[in-house]
Design brief:
By secondary structure, the chain is an alpha/beta fold. It is built from 14 helices and 20 strands. Bound molecules: flavin-adenine dinucleotide.
Length: 482
C-alpha cells in the first residue's frame, strides 16, 4: 500500500473538486486530489458555463438581476423547502467567483439566458470556437493549471474508496486504488467529497428516483459517475437525503441527431400525450425541466411533438421561433435530410404520415381523439388558446401533410443531491451535526432545488459546483488550520 499525506484530500477533480483544491491551496492548505478518470473536469467539460449574479457583464448589458431578486425567486420556486443560508451564500459569492475565475485566465462571452423566460445569469466561457457545448472545458483547464501552480498534487486514475475516521469520529484519511490496482492511503485532516452524483448508475437511479434508465429516463451518463461519493459519505455517517435527477427533457436519441431536428421539434408547437391530448402551454417547452416534469407525469412517460409541412417550411424560410443558447443555429434547412438520415440509422422515434389518422395510428394514439385535438388547436390558432393560454405568436396551425412527430422523453444532466450539508458544506448526520473534517460539495450535495432543477437562473448547477467547491475549500482550510 502506498501512503500519501496532505492536510486536505479532495475526492474528484470535476469543477467542484478543482475549485475546492484551488481555494484550499490559496488559503494555505496542502492538498491532494484523487480523480477516478484519466483527465480532470468531469461532466462540466461538456457544458458551457456557470451562474453569476451581479457581475460586470450583467451591469454592462443592463441586466437587472441582483442577489436579492435571485434569492427571492429561488426560495419561492422551491417553496422554502431548501437551505436558505446555503442558497444566499452561494448567490452572494457567485459574482466574485466569476472574477476569481477571470484572475486565473478564464474569459467569458457575457451573461446569457437559456430560454426567453429565464434570467441572464449564465456566464458562458469564451473559447476560440465561439459559443457552444464544451466551452467550460476551458474553465476546467484554467482551474487545473492554477491548482498545479499552487502545488496541489493530483493522482489521476485513482478512485477514492473509503473515508477513514479516528476514534473520536474525525476524518483522518481516505483510501483509494491507483492505476496499477494498488491500494493507497492518504493521511489527512479533512476530506472534500465531490464525485458528481450517480448519473451513470442505472440501479442507483432506479432505487433513488424510480426512473428506469434508457426506458423512461434518458439522462446524460458520464462514465465513472456512479455514486461513489454518495456511498462513501453515507458510510461515514452523513445523512441520506433525496437523490434527484437534474431534469432536462429532450427528444429520444438526441445525442446522434443533427441540431436541426431538436431545433424544429423543441419549439412551442403542438405537444400531446399518449391519449392525444395537449398537456401544457408549449411556450414553456424550452424550459427543459418543466418539459421533463410534464412528460414524467404522463402515461408511459412519453409525449409527442407534432409539426406539419407548413410549419417546417416556415422555419426553413424564416428560422425557428425560439433560439436556444444550446442550439444557436437558426437555419434548419437540413431538417428533411436529418430526419431521413436518423431513420436510416435505425432511430425509430420519428413518425411521418400524410394524414393525421395515419400519424395517430403510428404513435398508438386514438385517431379520433388526435384529430379532435388538432381541430380544436387549429381553431385556437384563428382566435386564442382557450386551453392553455399560449401567446398568439406561437399558435401555428397543424393542417398540411405530411405531418411529422417525434417522441419527447424525460432526461437530465445526471443526479443531484443525496448528502446532507450545511451552509459551510460540512457533511452532516441525521442530527444535522457536522462530521468533523468531512465536506461535500457539487452535485453530490446539491439539495437546493427541491423537486425541480432551477432553469430560470441558468448556469445553476455548474455555478453551484464551483461555488460550493470554493466554500468547502475555504472552510476545510480553516478547519485544518485550527
Ligand atoms: C452535457 C452537459 C452540459 C452541461 N452544461 C452545463 C452548463 O452549461 N451550465 C451548468 O450550470 N451546468 C451544466 N451541466 C451540469 C454541470 O456540468 C454539473 O452540474 C457539474 O459538472 C457538476 O460538477 P461536479 O464537480 O459536482 O461533478 P462532475 O463534473 O460530474 O465531476 C465528478 C468527477 O468525479 C470523478 N469521480 C467519480 N467517482 C470518483 C471516485 N470514487 N474517486 C475520485 N473521483 C471520482 C469523476 O471522474 C468526475 O471527474 C452540464 C452537464 C452536462 C452533462
Amino acid at each position: 500500500m502506498k501512503n500519501y499525506e496532505a492536510q486536505i484530500c479532495v475526492i474528484a477533480a470535476g469543477p467542484t473538486g478543482l475549485s475546492a483544491a484551488v481555494q484550499a491551496a490559496e488559503d494555505g492548505a496542502s492538498v491532494i486530489v484523487l480523480e477516478k478518470a484519466a483527465a480532470v473536469g468531469g461532466a462540466a467539460n461538456m457544458g458551457m458555463g456557470p451562474l453569476g449574479i451581479g457581475t460586470k457583464y450583467q451591469k454592462a448589458q443592463m441586466i437587472d438581476i441582483s442577489v436579492e431578486k435571485a434569492f427571492n425567486m429561488f426560495m419561492e420556486y422551491t417553496h422554502y423547502q431548501v437551505d436558505a443560508r446555503l442558497v444566499k451564500r452561494y448567490f452572494e459569492q457567485s459574482g466574485e467567483t466569476i472574477e476569481w475565475l477571470e484572475d486565473m485566465g478564464v474569459e467569458f462571452e457575457g451573461a446569457y439566458r437559456y430560454f426567453p423566460q429565464s434570467e441572464a445569469t449564465w456566464h458562458i466561457v469564451k473559447t476560440d470556437k465561439g459559443i457552444g457545448p464544451r466551452a467550460a472545458s476551458f474553465m476546467n483547464k484554467a482551474l487545473y493549471e492554477k491548482a498545479l501552480e499552487l502545488g496541489v498534487t493530483f493522482l489521476l486514475e485513482t478512485p477514492a474508496t473509503k473515508i477513514l475516521k479516528d476514534e473520536e469520529g474525525c476524518v483522518c484519511g481516505v483510501m483509494g486504488v491507483d492505476k496499477s490496482g494498488e491500494e493507497i492511503k492518504v493521511d489527512c485532516k479533512a476530506a472534500i467529497i465531490c464525485t458528481g452524483g450517480a448519473g451513470c448508475n442505472p440501479e442507483m437511479i432506479k432505487e433513488e428516483t424510480g426512473f428506469t434508465f434508457g426506458k423512461d429516463m434518458f439522462n446524460f451518463a458520464i462514465p465513472g459517475i456512479v455514486g461513489d461519493g454518495l456511498r462513501m459519505a453515507w458510510e461515514a455517517g452523513a445523512d441520506h437525503v433525496p437523490v434527484r435527477i437534474e431534469m432536462a427533457a429532450n427528444i429520444e436519441g438526441i445525442d446522434d441527431l443533427p441540431q436541426c431536428i431538436p431545433n424544429v421539434f423543441i419549439q412551442p408547437n403542438l405537444l400531446v400525450n399518449q391519449f392525444g391530448k395537449r398537456v401544457m402551454n408549449e411556450e414553456y417547452m424550452q424550459n427543459a425541466t418543466y418539459l421533463s416534469n410534464v412528460v414524467s407525469n404522463q402515461k408511459d412517460r412519453v409525449c409527442y411533438s407534432i409539426v406539419d409541412t407548413s410549419i417546417v417550411k416556415n422555419y426553413i424560410r424564416n428560422g425557428v421561433d425560439v433560439v436556444s443558447m444550446v442550439r444557436t443555429e437558426t437555419d434548419v434547412s437540413d431538417f428533411y435530410d436529418g430526419v431521413k438520415m436518423a431513420q436510416e440509422n435505425g432511430n425509430d422515434s420519428f413518425y411521418i404520415a400524410d394524414t393525421v389518422e395515419e400519424l395517430a395510428e403510428m404513435m398508438g394514439i386514438d385517431p379520433e381523439t388526435l384529430a379532435d385535438t388538432i381541430d380544436e388547436y387549429n381553431d385556437f390558432c384563428d382566435s386564442v388558446d382557450e386551453e392553455f393560454f399560449k401567446q398568439k405568436k406561437y399558435l401555428k396551425a397543424v393542417h398540411k401533410g405530411p405531418f411529422y412527430a417525434t417522441r419527447v422523453r424525460a432526461g437530465g444532466y445526471g443526479t443531484v443531491g443525496g448528502v446532507r450539508i450545511n451552509e459551510n458544506c460540512e457533511a452532516c448526520g441525521a442530527d444535522f451535526m457536522p462530521i468533523p473534517g468531512l465536506y461535500c460539495a457539487g452535485a453530490d450535495s446539491c439539495n437546493i432545488y427541491n423537486d425541480s432543477y432551477m432553469f430560470l437562473l441558468p448556469g445553476n448547477s455548474m455555478g453551484y459546483a464551483v461555488n460550493t467547491g470554493r466554500i468547502a475549500g475555504m472552510e476545510a482550510a480553516e478547519f485544518v488550520e485550527e
